[in-house]
Each structure stands twice: as structure tokens, then as C-alpha cells.
Specification:
- This protein is mainly alpha-helical.
- Helices cover 55% and strands 0% of the residues.
- It has four helices and no strands.
- Helix 2 packs across helix 3, helix 2 crosses helix 4 and helix 3 packs across helix 4.
- The chain starts with 10 loop residues before the first helix and ends in a 5-residue tail after the last helix.
Length: 108
């Protein structure tokens, strides 16, 4: 396995990356626990759609409906009593998570 293929996902690094990615008006609004919770919901959504399966179709790429993902996170956060988030806030966290994954070559 080459170094390029040997990415290491680190939750703490992901949270720091997302906190730095957020626009100034959202900095400080989300704790590390909040971001970890939201990222967990993002991966729950991926799992519910079968995007995390180890099937052979993984080379075909995945087309994620970002609006559906954001609604999933908002709906489940409210259901779990974690707070009310706006679609814009969740969109920034989703985009930050995707940028973090890209930075560690997770999708290559």
C-alpha cells in the first residue's frame, strides 16, 4: 500500500479543520462535540444510502444530494434534542468535512 493510499482519518483533525473552515460569524457557535455529532450524522446518512459499502461499485463515484443530506442532519439533530440548526450552518459543516476528506486524499 502506498502512502497515497494510506490516509488516516482523525476526528480531532477533522473538527479543527471544520472549525477553521467555518466563516467568521459561525466561529465559536459550534463546540467540538457539536461538530463531532454533526459529522456522525453525515456518516449515518452515507451509511443509510449505502455509500459506505465495500462493494465493487465504489470506483463509479457517488453523487450526494447535499440538500437531502443537510435536511437529514437538521431533522435528526432536532429529533435527538441537539438543537436547531439552519441549513446554511449545516452546509458549511458538510462542506468543511468534505474538504477535510479531500485534504487527506480520502476520496482518491
Amino acid at each position: 500500500m502506498s502512502e497515497k493510499d494510506d490516509f488516516i482519518y482523525d476526528e480531532d483533525d477533522s473538527v479543527k479543520f471544520i472549525q477553521n473552515y467555518l466563516p467568521q460569524e459561525l466561529k465559536g457557535k459550534f463546540s467540538s462535540d457539536d461538530i463531532n455529532y454533526i459529522v456522525d450524522l453525515i456518516y449515518d446518512y452515507y451509511d443509510s444510502k449505502g455509500y459506505l459499502s465495500d462493494g465493487e461499485e465504489e470506483d463509479t463515484g457517488v453523487d450526494i444530494d447535499e440538500n437531502e443530506l443537510v435536511e437529514y442532519v437538521i431533522r435528526n439533530a432536532q429529533k435527538d434534542g441537539m438543537g436547531k440548526y439552519s441549513a446554511d450552518e449545516i452546509t458549511f459543516i458538510v462542506q468543511g468535512e468534505l474538504e477535510y476528506c479531500d485534504s487527506i486524499n480520502m476520496f482518491d
